Amino acid sequence: MSRVTFRERLRYWFDNTMSKGTASLIGWLAVVSLALIVTVTGFALWLAPGEPDGTGRVGEVLWITLMHALTPSKVASDKGSAAYLAVMFAGSLGGLFIVSMLVGLLSNGLKQKVDRLRRGRSRIVESGHTVVLGWSDQVFTIVGELVKAHASQKRSAVAILADRDKLDMEEDLREHLGDLGRTRLVCRTGKPTEPHDLALMNLAAARSVVVLSPEGEDPDAHVIKILLALAKREGAHPPVVAALTSGRNLAAARLAGGPDVHLVDSDDTAARLIVQSSRQSGLSVVCMDLLNFDGGEIYLRTPKKLVGVTYGEALHAYQTACVIGLRRPSGVVLNPPGDTVIGADDQVIVIAADDSHVRLAAGSPSVDESAIAAPAGRPAPAPERTLLLNWNGRAERIVRLLDAYVAPGSVLEIAAGDPRAGAGLTGLRNLTVNVKDCDTTDRFALESLGVGLFQHVIVLSDDRFDPHHADTRTLMTLLQLRDMQSALGEHYSIVSEMHDENNRALAEVTEADDIVISDTVIGLLLAQLAENRHLAEVFGCLFDSHGSEIYPRPASSYVRTGTEVTFSTVIEAARRRGESAIGYRACAGRDDPPHYGIVLNPGKSDPIVFAEGDAVIVLAEH
Predict the structure, then answer these.
(1) Which of 132, 425, 612, 615 could form an SS bridge with 585, CB 3.0 to 4.6 Å?
(2) DSSP codes joined into one string, 267-288
(3) Membrane-spanning residues where (predicted)?
(4) Residues 214-244: pLDDT tens digits?
(5) CA-CA distances (angstroms) from residue 521 to 273, 497, 539?
(6) Distance CA 29, CA 384 (A)
(7) Which long-range contacts (CB under 8 A, 24 or more apart) does 324-328 make?
């Protein structure tokens, strides 16, 4: 190996100093400037002593040379000998290069500082804020719902950390959401998986953390890595809510995140809502109303006055809220038996317009006994025929959930162009499954299926295409089905799955019974859990096939139609059937967005006249 020379060592040292940034470069420029000034001063004293006239001291010549270096234009006003003018011209020329380099270095350094501030790299100083880690289309739903939830607060903030440009994030959010009211939006550029980037979010003072599942391949691995980074950080750990696309990764995510993390299985939640909506028209609208912060919301109350009261009596206890269940030390129970006694450790689960509107009733409920219909026995469940159009990653889960609902002997016809369709469907108890190859956007292919023979049609989003194109194909299928219904006079429920909330308005033209925007549902659920993580058990029970669920049932089974009644009378009629009434659906408004005739938590004393076709929305056993 050759010996390192002095020149190589000097050059190595110089390179290291130059790489330290703008300050080091300015330091070297100052050294060069000093050398130039001293050299020019020396030549001036040697070649032109006493010039300019009256100047003889070294300090005065140094000052004149410095002014020529900083202001090269001064050479134009110089007078003296040729030697003096030549020396000052050389000093001015060197100063011109030095000043140009200084301006360039300062401009570049300032630009770097501005770019750093623009990217959002300063540590935020908020407290009690909600932190969102990652970026996906769900961020617009989550931030929008948090803004609604915080509308009555004087100070609130939502902080977002994502590997995107800070200004781009802020512009996208304001374009989608508009006015944010009193809520401050703080965006920071960084990787949520990096501890030093997480430190920017002041997590120790945060109210809650939401981890988004990103778009692209293997998003759950990214979520798990973020959970690991959160668990390893020092300091206080706020509650964390995270969404996973596959239930197979739940165990690994729980291990990574620890006890402070609540996980949402996106595929399972969307699948449950699709299945339930296919069997109960309007259910998706009810669930969306419960999940968002616009209308009826779910709250937990601990009223001392209800301790020792039975659940059946508590159904009439609130003037401005509907009781739907109890949160007990052993877990959440929706619509428990009417004789269940409320204990001191129990919380009452209610639906109300706002937390501040939950008030106990002053007197006895106004119940019209003459308007209550006599309970009638329900017919035994009969086998059903369901048509499933298209196939995607959650389709198998949908089929298995549907198998748990239908009566034995039911038939499921799967029509899709995906070669995966129907794979892995072993062990079904109640369903007989048939699979057909079909282009679901083709009118003749759909007609060959005999759609009129089915009671329910489920249209899934085909994940072989990007979400935008998949929604376009879904719209084409819905239009074909709608036209076939009109032309042939057929009647069957249609439930459709879509990705983009913006396509809902287009899909309304097809008059599908229910449209499930899967990404929006998960975004709404994450926003609810970010505000109150204890609601996770409540929504879990609502979407579960076991226990009580939401059912729209004919109003004529509860009260006399054409007769003016109060909602207290409806609640009493449902109570006598072991059910909890939470609202109703007017048939006349079933095609009118955004609520499609559904009214949740109406006033207990408001007069209602039900017509044939209207429904009462209740929590009841399957």
Answers:
(1) 615
(2) HHHHHHHHHHHHHSTTHHHHHH
(3) 21-48, 82-106
(4) 877 788 999 999 999 998 888 888 999 999 9
(5) 9, 11, 12
(6) 85
(7) 324/298, 324/349, 324/350, 324/351, 324/580, 324/582, 324/619, 325/349, 325/538, 325/541, 325/548, 325/580, 325/619, 327/300, 327/534, 327/537, 327/538
Q: Residue for token digits 């995140």?
A: 257
C-alpha to C-alpha distances, 620 to 123, 382, 522, 559, 616, nearest whole angstrom: 50, 19, 24, 17, 11
pLDDT at 119: 63
User: How many residues are there in the chain?
Assistant: 622
The CA distance from 56 to 14, in Å, is 38
- Dump pLDDT digits (tens) for 407-418: 999 999 999 999
Q: What is the pLDDT of residues 453-470, one digit of tens each?
A: 999 999 999 988 988 899
Return all residues near 338 (Cβ < 8 A) that are at least 6 apart: 310, 311, 312, 575, 578
Burial class (CB in 10 A: 0-12, 13-18, 19+), 338: middle
For residue 510, what are its two tokens?
């097809």
Rg (CA), the chain: 36
C-alpha 621/C-alpha 381 separation (Å) is 13
At position 596, the amino acid (one-letter code) is: Y
Region of residue 233 (left: phi > 0; alpha: psi -120 to 50; beta: else) = beta
Token output for 195: 């501890």
Q: Nearest-CA neighbor of 558 among 599, 508, 595, 608?
A: 608
pLDDT attached to residue 151: 79
User: What are the respective helix, strand and coil percentages of the chain, to the nearest 5?
Assistant: 45, 20, 35
Characterize the bridge pairing of strands 297-301 and 347-352.
Answer: antiparallel
CA 199 to chain centre: 22
214 SS3 class: coil
- How far is Cα 9 from Cα 129, in angstroms, rounded to an integer? 53
Pairing of strands 598-600, 580-585: antiparallel
d(CA 540, CA 377): 29
Residues contacting 311, CB < 8 A, separation 6+ = 323, 326, 336, 337, 338, 339, 340, 341, 342
Residue 396 CB neighbours (<10 A): 18
Between strands 331-334 and 410-416, the pairing is: unpaired
Quickly tell me which residue has 């509907």 as its tokens: 322
The predicted pLDDT at position 14 comes to 64
Read off the tokens for 602. 């109406």
pTM above the 0.70 mark?
A: yes
Which runs of E-coded beta strand occur in 331-447?
Answer: 331-334, 347-352, 385-389, 410-416, 431-437
Task: Tell me the C-alpha distance between 608 and 606, whole Å.
Answer: 6
Q: Which of 89-98, 359-368, 431-440 has the lowest mean pLDDT?
A: 89-98
The token pair at 211 is 């981890």
SS3 (DSSP) at 393: coil
Query: Other C-beta atoms within 10 Å of 528: how many?
Result: 24
The rounded distance, in Å, linking the Cα atoms of 401 and 544 is 9
